[in-house]
C-alpha cells in the first residue's frame, strides 16, 4: 500500500465517523514556543487551550511536521526523520477515551477490502499510563485483548503535556511487534515504567492517543508535574506517524525505504556508483540525503530561506548536510538539481504547491548549494592554515575552538573537519568542540525558555476576554466611536486607573483603532474622557478577539468605567491606507517585472513608508528597479479600483489570491483585497484606499539584501514620496549651482570630475611607489644582522604584487654579495597582502631558502605561497598582519632554525 493510499484511508475513515477534514497548515506558525509545526495538534492549540471556540466538534488532518533536535540520529535508526506527516483525529469536548480507542483499533485492524490497514491483531500491543485503570478496562472491552497484552508505562512514556502549565493527560500508544529481527524477546507485562531502548525498534509505536483531561499547575519535567484538577472540557488529540505505518504496510525495514523517500536514494546510487546496503557507513549517508532533501524542499515550499539564525539556520544545516553526504559518497558535482526533482515528483502528488512554486523552491535550494561549495573552498583554505600552524608548533591536535569556528562561522560539519584532520595526520579536540557546542545549545535553550515565558503573559488578557467578551472592532467602518472602558493594565497587571503622565493599557468595549497586523503599523490617535485625554501609542491583539491600546495619559486621571470618545488621527489613517495599498502595488509590480517567483516574504508599512521583502537570489539591476517603480506608478495613474470580499480559503486560492508565508488564515473565511481585478489579489486584513490613484506616488528609495535568497525594496508613498522628490530636486539644484552647469548636464560634469580625481590619485600613487622603489639602496644599507644573515625587510603600504617583486629583487642586488642575505618585502595594495622573498647566492650557499621564508610569512598572513630557493612569493587574506609576518621571518632567522 503506497503512502497516498494510507493517507486517503485515514482521512476517509474519520470523515465517515463525522470528522471534518482540515488541510495541513503551513510548517510555520506564529507560536513563540516553536520554530516549526512539530505535531498534528499544533494548529488546533487555540482550541485545546480554550483561547478560541473550535468550529467543529470533531476534526481530522494529515499535518506536515518538522523536528530537528534528533538530527544527528537521522539515518542511524529506523525511526528518526526530520520531516514527517502526522495523521490525527481530534475531539473537542465530544467523544473521549472509548471513542478514540474504538476508532483507532477499527482502522488498524479492519481488513484492506473494507478500507482498513489489516494489521495482524496478534502483533499489536496497547500501552497505557500505569495509573489509568479506566484506559486498561476500555482496551480490554473494545479489543478483547488479554490483560498481559496491555503494557503499563510511567509518566515519562505515557503522560502528555505541553511542557508548560496548561492541559495534560494520560495517553495510550499502539505498539506493533516487528519480530525478533528488530530486538530481543520480552515479557511486556513486566517492563516499565520506561520502555527499554533495545525494544523500541521491535515494538514500534505507530499511534499515540492523548486523553486530555487534567489541568496542570506546574511542569518541571516530563515526569515531574502537578495536577491542579480536571479540565472543564475533556478533549482527544491523537497522532499517527504516516511513515511508520508505511514501512509496516510496505514491509520495509525503515522509513527511508518507503515509496516517497527511497527514489532519492536510488538516484544517489546512480550518481555515485555506490550501492545502498553494501556498507553501513554509506547507508547512513544515503538516508541523510534522502531525509534532508525532502525536509529542505518542504521548508522552502513554506517560505523558509537559508540563513544564519532561527528557521533559516535549520534549513541551511539540512541542505549542507545533504550536499556534504553526497560528496562523501563520491559525487562532487552540484547534487541538488539531480535530487530535488525526484523528491518533488513524489511529494508533489499530495502537495501541489511544490509543483506550482517549483521555480522559486529550486532557485533557493540550488543557490544555497552554490554558496556552500564556495564555503567549502574557503573553509578548506582556513583549515589548511590552522593545520599547518599546529604541525609547525609540533602539535598533533586541532584545537576545539578552531573546529567550532569552522562549524559555526563557515558551516563546516564536524565530520568534515574530523575527516580532513585525519587526512592531515591530526586529531581534533572533540571534547573542546562539544563543550562549545553545548554552550551554544544552552544559550538556545535559555532563549526558548524566555519564549515560553511569553505564553504565560497572555493570562491577564484572556481573563479580560472571558469577563467582557471580544472587542467590537470597527476600524473598517469609522474613525470615531463612543466607547466604555472595560479594563486598565499597568505593567501587565490590572489596575483601577491611570494618573497623568502614566503609560498603561486600556481595553474598550468598541474601538475604531487598527491593531498592528499583516505588516501594517497600528493606528495613532486619542481617547478623550471627562477631564482628560489619552494618547494612543500602540494597538495590539495579544489574544484573538481582544484589542488592547497602549496609552499615555496626557492630562487628567482615567477613572474606572469611564465613558470615552476614541478617535483615530485621520491624517495617520490616510497615510497608512496609502502605504498598505502601495505595498500591494509594489508586490504586483515586482511580479510583473521579475516573474511570479518573486513572492512576498514579509512587509512593513506605516504612513508614508513601505518596505517589502521578497524571495530572490540576486540583486536587482538599476533598470529592474526603475521598471518596478514605473509599473507601480502606471498602476496609480490608471486609477485602478481597490476592493475586498470575503470567501473561504480554498475559494480564495482557487481565485488566485496570494497568501503569505508564515501567516495563519481562517479556513472558513478570509478577506481578499484586489487592486485592478486579477492584477493584484492578496489575502489581507489591512486598511486600503478606494482607488490606486489615492496612493499619490510611489518612490523607490532602495533595494538591498536581507539574507540569502531574500531581497528588500523600500519606498515612500503619498506626501512623503513627493517630499523625498523635492529634496532630491533641491540637491540637484545646489550641485548645479556649485558646478556652474545645467541640471541635465550634471551627471556628465560630475563624471568628468570623478575621472580626473581618479587619474590624479593614480599619479600620486605611482609617484609614491616610485619613491619607495628608489629607496632600495637605503633598505639594503639598513639590513640588520641576524645570526650572520643580512636581512633587509620592509612593509610597503599600498604596493601591489608587481611592485613588491621589483623592490625585493632590487634590494637583493644591492646587498653585499659575499655575505648571506635576504630581502623580504610585504605589500598591502588592494587590502590584500602580498609577499616576496629574494635570497642571494651566498645565502643559498649557506642553506637559506626563499621558499621556506615565504611560508613563514604567509602562515601569519592567512594564505599560501611558494617558489624556489632564490625567489618565492605568496599572498594572504589579512593585510593587518603584515608587520607581524615580517617579525615572524626575522624571529625565524634570529633563532637560527633549519632553513630548508
UniProtKB/TrEMBL annotation:
* Domain Alanyl-transfer RNA synthetases family profile as annotated: residue spans: 1-727
According to UniProt, the name of this protein is: Alanine--tRNA ligase
Keyword Cytoplasm part of the UniProt annotation: yes
What EC number is given for this enzyme?
Answer: 6.1.1.7
- TM spans, by residue? none
UniProt cofactor(s) = Zn(2+)
Entry keyword set: Aminoacyl-tRNA synthetase, ATP-binding, Cytoplasm, Ligase, Metal-binding, Nucleotide-binding, Protein biosynthesis, RNA-binding, tRNA-binding, Zinc
Chief location: cytoplasm
Cross-referenced Pfam families: DHHA1, tRNA-synt_2c, tRNA_SAD
Amino acid at each position: 500500500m503506497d503512502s497516498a493510499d494510507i493517507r486517503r484511508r485515514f482521512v476517509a475513515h474519520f470523515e465517515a465517523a463525522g470528522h471534518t477534514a482540515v488541510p495541513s497548515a503551513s510548517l510555520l506558525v506564529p507560536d513563540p514556543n516553536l520554530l516549526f509545526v512539530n505535531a498534528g495538534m499544533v494548529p488546533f492549540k487555540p482550541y485545546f487551550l480554550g483561547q478560541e471556540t473550535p468550529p467543529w466538534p470533531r476534526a481530522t488532518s494529515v499535518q506536515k511536521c518538522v523536528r530537528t533536535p534528533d538530527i544527528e540520529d537521522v539515518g542511524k535508526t529506523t525511526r528518526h526523520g526530520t520531516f514527517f506527516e502526522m495523521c490525527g483525529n481530534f475531539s473537542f469536548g465530544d467523544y473521549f477515551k472509548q471513542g478514540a480507542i474504538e476508532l483507532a483499533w477499527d482502522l488498524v485492524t479492519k481488513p484492506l477490502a473494507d478500507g482498513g490497514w489489516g494489521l495482524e491483531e496478534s502483533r499489536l500491543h496497547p500501552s497505557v499510563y500505569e495509573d489509568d485503570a479506566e484506559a486498561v478496562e476500555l482496551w480490554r472491552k473494545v479489543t478483547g485483548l488479554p490483560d498481559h497484552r496491555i503494557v503499563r508505562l510511567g509518566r515519562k512514556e505515557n503522560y502528555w503535556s505541553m511542557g508548560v502549565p496548561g492541559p495534560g493527560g494520560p495517553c495510550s500508544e499502539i505498539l506493533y511487534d516487528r519480530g525478533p529481527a528488530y530486538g530481543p524477546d520480552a515479557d511486556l507485562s513486566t517492563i516499565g515504567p520506561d520502555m527499554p531502548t533495545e525494544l523500541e525498534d521491535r515494538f514500534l509505536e505507530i499511534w499515540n492517543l492523548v486523553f486530555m483531561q487534567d489541568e496542570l499547575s506546574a511542569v518541571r519535567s516530563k515526569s515531574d508535574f502537578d495536577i491542579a484538577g480536571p479540565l472543564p472540557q475533556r478533549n482527544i488529540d491523537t497522532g499517527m506517524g504516516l511513515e511508520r505505518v508505511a514501512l509496516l504496510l510496505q514491509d520495509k525495514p525503515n522509513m527511508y525505504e518507503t515509496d516517497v523517500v527511497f527514489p532519492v536514494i536510488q538516484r544517489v546510487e546512480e550518481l555515485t556508483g555506490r550501492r545502498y546496503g553494501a556498507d553501513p557507513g554509506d547507508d547512513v549517508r544515503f538516508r541523510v540525503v534522502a531525509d534532508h532533501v525532502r525536509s529542505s524542499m518542504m521548508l522552502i515550499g513554506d517560505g523558509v530561506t537559508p540563513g544564519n539564525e532561527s528557521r533559516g539556520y535549520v534549513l541551511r544545516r539540512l541542505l549542507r548536510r545533504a550536499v556534504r553526504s553526497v560528496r562523501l559518497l563520491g559525487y562532487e558535482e552540484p547534487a541538488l538539481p539531480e535530487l530535488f526533482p525526484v523528491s518533488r515528483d513524489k511529494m508533489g502528488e499530495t502537495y501541489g504547491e511544490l509543483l506550482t512554486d517549483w521555480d522559486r523552491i529550486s532557485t533557493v535550494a540550488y543557490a544555497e548549494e552554490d554558496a556552500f561549495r564556495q564555503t567549502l573552498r574557503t573553509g578548506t583554505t582556513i583549515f589548511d592554515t590552522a593545520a599547518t600552524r599546529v604541525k609547525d608548533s609540533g602539535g598533533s591536535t586541532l584545537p576545539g575552538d578552531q573546529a567550532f569556528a569552522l562549524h559555526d562561522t563557515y558551516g563546516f560539519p564536524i565530520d568534515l573537519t574530523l575527516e580532513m584532520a585525519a587526512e592531515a595526520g591530526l586529531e581534533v579536540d572533540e571534547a573542546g568542540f562539544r563543550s562549545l557546542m553545548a554552550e551554544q545549545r544552552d544559550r538556545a535553550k535559555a532563549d526558548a525558555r524566555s519564549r515560553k515565558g511569553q505564553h504565560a503573559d497572555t493570562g491577564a488578557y484572556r481573563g479580560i476576554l472571558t469577563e467582557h467578551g471580544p472587542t467590537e472592532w470597527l476600524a473598517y467602518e469609522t474613525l470615531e466611536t463612543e466607547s466604555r472602558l472595560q479594563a486598565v493594565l499597568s505593567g501587565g497587571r490590572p489596575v483601577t486607573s491611570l494618573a497623568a503622565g502614566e503609560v498603561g493599557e486600556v481595553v474598550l468595549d468598541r474601538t475604531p483603532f487598527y491593531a498592528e497586523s499583516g505588516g501594517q503599523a497600528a493606528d495613532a490617535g486619542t481617547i478623550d474622557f471627562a477631564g482628560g485625554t489619552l494618547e494612543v501609542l500602540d494597538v495590539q491583539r495579544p489574544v484573538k478577539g481582544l484589542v488592547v491600546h497602549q496609552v499615555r495619559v496626557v492630562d487628567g486621571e482615567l477613572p474606572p468605567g469611564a465613558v470615552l470618545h476614541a478617535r483615530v488621527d485621520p491624517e495617520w489613517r490616510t497615510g497608512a491606507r496609502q502605504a498598505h495599498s502601495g505595498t500591494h502595488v509594489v508586490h504586483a509590480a515586482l511580479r510583473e517585472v521579475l516573474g511570479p517567483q518573486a513572492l512576498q516574504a514579509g512587509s512593513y508599512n506605516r504612513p508614508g513608508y513601505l518596505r517589502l521583502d521578497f524571495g530572490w537570489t540576486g540583486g536587482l539591476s538599476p533598470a529592474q528597479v526603475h521598471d518596478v517603480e514605473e509599473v507601480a506608478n502606471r498602476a496609480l495613474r490608471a486609477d485602478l479600483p481597490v476592493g475586498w470580499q470575503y470567501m473561504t480559503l480554498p475559494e480564495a486560492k482557487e481565485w488566485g489570491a496570494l497568501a503569505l508565508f508564515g501567516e495563519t488564515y481562517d479556513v472558513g473565511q478570509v478577506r481578499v483585497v484586489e487592486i485592478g481585478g486579477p492584477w493584484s489579489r492578496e489575502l489581507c486584513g489591512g486598511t486600503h484606499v478606494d482607488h490606486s490613484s489615492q496612493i499619490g506616488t510611489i518612490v523607490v528609495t532602495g533595494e538591498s539584501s536581507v539574507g540569502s535568497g531574500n531581497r528588500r525594496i523600500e519606498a515612500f508613498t503619498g506626501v512623503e514620496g513627493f517630499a523625498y522628490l523635492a529634496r532630491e530636486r533641491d540637491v540637484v539644484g545646489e550641485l548645479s549651482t556649485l558646478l556652474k552647469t545645467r541640471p541635465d548636464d550634471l551627471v556628465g560634469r560630475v563624471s568628468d570630475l570623478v575621472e580626473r580625481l581618479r587619474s590624479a590619485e593614480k599619479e600620486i600613487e605611482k609617484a609614491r611607489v616610485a619613491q619607495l622603489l628608489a629607496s632600495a639602496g637605503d633598505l639594503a644599507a639598513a639590513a640588520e644582522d641576524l645570526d650572520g644573515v643580512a636581512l633587509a625587510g620592509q612593509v610597503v603600504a599600498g604596493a601591489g604584487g608587481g611592485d613588491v617583486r621589483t623592490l625585493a629583487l632590487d634590494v637583493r642586488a644591492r646587498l653585499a654579495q659575499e655575505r648571506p642575505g635576504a630581502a623580504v618585502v610585504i605589500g598591502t595594495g588592494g587590502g590584500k597582502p602580498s609577499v616576496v622573498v629574494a635570497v642571494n647566492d651566498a645565502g643559498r650557499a649557506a642553506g637559506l631558502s626563499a621558499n621556506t621564508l615565504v611560508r613563514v610569512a604567509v602562515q601569519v598572513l592567512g594564505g599560501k605561497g611558494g617558489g624556489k630557493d632564490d625567489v618565492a612569493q605568496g599572498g594572504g587574506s589579512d593585510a593587518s598582519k603584515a608587520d607581524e609576518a615580517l617579525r615572524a621571518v626575522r624571529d625565524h632567522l634570529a633563532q637560527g632554525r633549519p632553513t630548508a
